[in-house]
Write a structure and sequence with these properties.
The chain has helices at residues 2-23, 31-37, 43-49, 52-61, 64-100, 105-137, 148-166. By secondary structure, it is mainly alpha-helical. Helix 1 (2-23) packs across helix 6, helix 2 (31-37) packs antiparallel against helix 5 and helix 6 packs antiparallel against helix 7.
């Protein structure tokens, strides 16, 4: 009975954590302030860090101790990229929520899509972080980022579309 109670409590705590991670914090900022807080994320570098072919090459050409050290450093760098992507998704989630309230239907629709992608991105980032940290502890387990990179690129395209819709005469440069 005690074990069941503990498992139920842990399930509720896990659900609460997932919701907090997906939603982000609730600080009110303008679009310009949100854009300024976005961290650059190099998707190509991230893909290289988690590339299984690169890992196999390093494993085959380095002594085991050197491989473990470099593998851990690469995965920590990948975790930093994932953290940046998750932080950006939280900021873009807020931007999408602001755009959703727009009286202009095309802006509201783009905002809705951005909100959906940002929430999905936060969940993918959480999954990727867990996989990366497991791979740090157990180097024989391959890292898979799932759909993290594709979702991040899709979210970036939506931000560009939203900027063009909001500032049609000036383009995205005015909103960034």
């Amino acid at each position: 009975m005690t074990i069941a109670f503990i498992l139920v409590v842990l399930a509720f705590v896990a659900l609460w954590v997932l919701l907090r991670l997906a939603k982000g914090n609730s600080v009110v900022l303008s679009s310009d302030q949100l854009i300024q807080k976005i961290r650059p994320v190099d998707i190509a570098a991230f893909r290289n860090l988690i590339d299984p072919n690169e890992e196999q090459f390093l494993r085959a050409n380095l002594p085991a101790s050197d491989f473990r050290k470099i593998h851990r450093e690469r995965l920590l760098a990948a975790a930093d990229y994932v953290s940046g992507a998750a932080q950006n998704a939280a900021l873009l989630l807020k931007m999408g929520e602001m755009a959703r309230r727009s009286p202009e239907p095309s802006i509201a629709e783009a905002g809705e899509k951005l909100v959906e992608n940002a929430i999905r991105m936060r969940l993918y980032a959480m999954q990727a972080s867990i996989r990366i940290y497991i791979a740090i502890v157990l180097p024989q387990i391959p890292v898979q980022a799932g759909r993290l990179t594709e979702n991040y690129e899709s979210m970036t395209r939506l931000v560009v579309l939203l900027g063009v819709l909001r500032f049609p005469t000036n383009g995205i440069a005015s909103s960034l």
